[in-house]
Amino acid sequence: MEQQIITELKRLVGSDYVMEQLEDRICYSFDATFRDFPPDVVVKPGNVEEIAAIVKLAGKYRLPVTARGAATGLSGGAVPVQGGISLVLTRLNKILAIDTANRVAVVETGVIAEDFVNAVSQAGLFYPPDPGSIKTATIGGTIAECAGGPRGVKYGITRDYVLGLEVVLPDGRIVEVGNRFDSEMAGPDWGMLFVGSEGTLGIVTKAYLKLIDKPKAKQTLLAVFNSLDDAARTVSEMIASGTIPTTLEIMDNMTIRAVEDFLKVGLPVNAEAILLIEVDGSAKAIAKQAEHVIKVCRQCGATEMQVASTPEDMDKLWRARRAISPACGKINPTKISEDATVPRSQIPAMVRRLREIAQKYNLKMVIFGHAGDGNLHPNILSNKHDHAEMERVEQAVAELFKEALHLGGTLSGEHGIGYMKAPFLKWETGETGFAAGKKLKQVIDQQELLNPGKLFNV
Ligand SMILES: Cc1cc2nc3c(=O)[nH]c(=O)nc-3n(C[C@H](O)[C@H](O)[C@H](O)COP(=O)(O)OP(=O)(O)OC[C@H]3O[C@@H](n4cnc5c(N)ncnc54)[C@H](O)[C@@H]3O)c2cc1C
To answer: Which residues contact 298 (CB under 8 A, 6 or more apart)?
Structure first.
């Protein structure tokens, strides 16, 4: 990169916050996917004005800008596939207000999601979106990916809690979109345009987020199955029966074994599948819901039901769920994590097809995920240095996307499109939908600077 640009960037944010050496750039070349592309320079701005100035500078020199939160993304959104500036947003780390009267929080987007959730809880309220990466992911990353999580089945996902946003547009102007509180608004909700836009339409610098009442009590249950098919069927039966648990997570046998091997928490390693179910509400309501959950699970073939009786038992089960990623990482070095999502009623069919696909391509596949949302996470455990295996992985991934769409689902329930799914996006949108998405991108970002190579920007 020209020294002139580096000098100008250092003048804008201070030389401590501009990194140009290869060893630094390599640290910002990857996310939780498996390919790496180093940026030409890493810049860590401290406020919205600096971001606006950086984006204007990028426009002047026609440099790509890739926003980066904590880089836990599973579709490669934060990977600067065309080089340019890696714009690291972690210095925007202030919770500006938790307004309990209006039930709104105002937060800078580099704040870690769990820090925010904890601060809201201390104020006596609740912010439900809870991606598995909550301890690391930033609020900006969760907005840009429209993150979901186990609680999505009852409480919805990030878009359900975004009221308004402050955004730096691709030409460097700063704009507020949406609302500052929960009400009707004048005109369309432009804020939603940026939710799930993966850093391709603007840099989100501040968010107005909706807060809700904290549930008074909760109960965690574990249902054990001898058949993955029965577990999958339980999910659709449960929702059809009118009971919406807070979470409804599935783990297949290979996942159970991997986690037990990693954590030793006493999971039933001979089970073909388990469902981890949580209900919440008033003490009276959860007792009734738990009773109903047990009844439906048993009717669908659960061989054993465990009810966590202490907070420690509940924590143990949730630690097991959170340990899936590191546990699988121990089996094979490259974890291809998909989140093809189908309508709940199609979960049994999708689970069957996933197993067939794994067998057909001779791949190790674990199946787990937010089954209550229809959001399965088939993870292929492979080795990126084994080229023959990676070719089979590519074919298997294409086939599982086709299957999800065939069953009325989507390529991505929550992980986004990034560079990894961009080649498949047209399968879902169709030519016209894709052309419209691309046109919108070109109207907002005329120089196509923000996050090239992702979503419609290919
Ligand atoms: C172990 C593990 C578990 C996970 N579990 C879940 C889960 O349950 N649910 C789920 O939805 N996801 C999950 N994820 C995926 C990932 O954590 C989420 O997508 C998360 O929201 C990404 O946040 P981040 O700060 O790491 O964003 P990054 O990875 O840094 O960036 C993601 C995208 O957002 C853009 N971006 C980041 N910040 C901004 C900003 N301020 N303005 C504009 N664009 C921005 C980037 O350019 C990129 O396109 C998981 C990941 C891992 C590794």
So the answer is: 305
- 303-323 exposure pattern, b = at least 16 Cβ within 10 A, e = fewer: eebeebeeeeebebbbebbbb
d(CA 348, CA 67): 38
Helix (H, G, I), strand (E, B) or coil at 155: helix
147 CB near ligand 1 (under 6 Å): yes
Give the nearest ligand 1 atom to 413 CA.
Answer: 11
How far, in Å, CA of 237 to CA of 240, rounded?
Answer: 5
**Residues 371 and 151 sit within 8 Å (Cβ to Cβ):** no
For residue 199, give the ligand 1 atom closest to its CA: 44
Q: Quickly tell me which residue has 């209006």 as its tokens.
A: 102
Task: Name the strand (E) or helix (H) holding 64.
Answer: none
Q: Does the pLDDT at position 298 exceed 90?
A: yes
Task: Report the nearest-CA residue for atom 2 of ligand 1.
Answer: 133
Tell how far the Cα of 71 is from the centroid of ligand 1, in angstroms: 6
Q: CA 195 to CA 157: how far, in whole Å?
A: 11
* Cα 103 from Cα 413, distance rounded (Å): 27
Q: How far is the CA of 271 from the centre of ligand 1 (A)?
A: 32
What are 8-25's pLDDT values in tens digits? 999 999 999 999 999 999
Distance of CA 228 from the midpoint of ligand 1 (Å): 29
Note the pLDDT tens digit of each residue in 384-408. Answer: 999 999 999 999 999 999 999 999 9
Q: Specify whether the CB–CB gap between 128 and 156 falls below 8 A.
A: yes
Q: Contact 307/316 with Cβ under 8 angstroms?
A: no
Measured CA to CA, the distance from residue 333 to residue 266 in angstroms comes to 25
Query: What pLDDT, on a 0 to 100 scale, did the predictor assign at position 392?
Result: 96
CB atoms within 10 A of CB 2: 10
Instruction: Tell me if 111 CB under 6 Å of ligand 1.
Output: no
Alpha carbons 400 and 394: distance in angstroms, whole number: 10
CA dihedral 163, 169, 174, 176 (to 10 degrees): -20
CA distance 346 to 233: 9
What's the pLDDT at 147? 96
The 3 state secondary structure assigned to 274-326 is EEEEEEEECHHHHHHHHHHHHHHHHHCCEEEEEECCCHHHHHHHHHHHHCHHH
Helices (H), 62-159: 113-122, 139-145, 152-155
3-class DSSP state of 112: strand
Ligand 1 pocket, 69 CB below 6 A? yes
pLDDT tens-digit series, residues 238-286: 999 988 999 999 999 999 999 999 999 999 999 999 999 999 999 889 9
Nearest alpha carbon, ligand 1 atom 45: 199
